[in-house]
Amino acid sequence: MEAIISHADADGIISASLIIKLKPKASLYFSSSTFLHKVICRLLDFDLETLYILDISANRKTILLSSIFNKVIWIDHHQWEDLEIPKNIEVFVEEAESAAKVVAKVLKIEDPLVDIANEIDTNNIKSDSAKFFRDLISAIKWKYGKTQSLKFRQIAKILAFRGLDELEKDVENIKLIEEHSNWLKSIVPEILEKAKEFEVNGKKIVIFETTKSLPVYFVYDSLKKSKSFDVLCVFYRKVDMRKKIPVTKIEVRSNNEDALKIARIFDGGGHKLASGATINRYLSIEEFLDRIKQVI
Asked: pLDDT (tens digit, 0 to 9) for every residue of the chain, 296 residues total?
């Protein structure tokens, strides 16, 4: 048995589809760096020959957990901390526009989906196909919430065996994207009104707090039209109903290397320009601004 754990975003889905083309019987799971250890633990009862982990950075805990399996192939494009890698884990980490690009290089294949992943993950949308796929994944997250992984599995398999055209001509997908787009447009006034501007060490910081499932790219693009800033921080306020505690998820976008530096203060990770972290408590804006003074 073989299994794939990939990041639950457009790049992660495309990365998974590239593996599925070669490993059609592999089981597919989606996760993030925050919850990766839980997904790995769920697989401990299975006799896995190979585990693929895609588009998710490792830490000491997840590296050690994954080493239980016979063979692990870890492919990523995020910046990793220094880790001791067990002998049964092959790590392919490169600074690239997308994880899909690294996957294609490792597999020695060419696929037009890689260009789409590159556009989406760098928020540099040029093609209609990239815009469609980005909007579809965003709409699914909004519509399906905790059951989104089921839809993502279906999409990865469609990409692998029938292609993006199959998704683009699906009437239900078109309706969902339109519904989501209309909802996003209705939120723009709230984004513009509630975004707060600060200055830290001479740099302009914009912070937007929300409890809604808003894509970061949409918040960024909406604010860029009317504001000039060096760093955008989106605070997603949630409640962990099982633990009954507040949770703060932050997404950071910057025009320089500040995003990753900021995320790492809160045990997060990502890229130099786009990073994030999840804090299992209420993180105030005042504390956030005070703590980031040391890195920007």
From this structure: 999 999 999 999 999 999 999 999 999 999 998 899 999 999 999 999 999 999 999 999 999 999 999 999 999 999 898 999 999 999 999 999 999 999 999 999 999 999 999 999 999 999 999 999 999 999 999 999 889 999 999 999 999 999 999 999 999 999 999 999 999 999 999 999 999 999 999 999 999 999 998 999 999 999 999 889 999 999 999 998 888 999 999 999 998 778 999 999 998 988 888 999 999 999 999 999 999 999 98
CATH code of the domain occupying 195-292: 3.10.310.30
| CA distances from residue 36 to 39, 41, 112, 149, 180 in whole angstroms, order as listed | 5, 9, 28, 14, 28
3-class SS at 289?
Answer: helix
Write down the domain spans for the chain.
2-171, 195-292
Amino acid identity, position 71: K
| Interatomic CA distance for residues 3 and 68, integer angstroms | 14
Q: Does domain 2-171 have CATH number 3.30.70?
A: no
Q: With contact defined as beta carbons under 8 Å apart, do 119 and 125 qualify?
A: yes
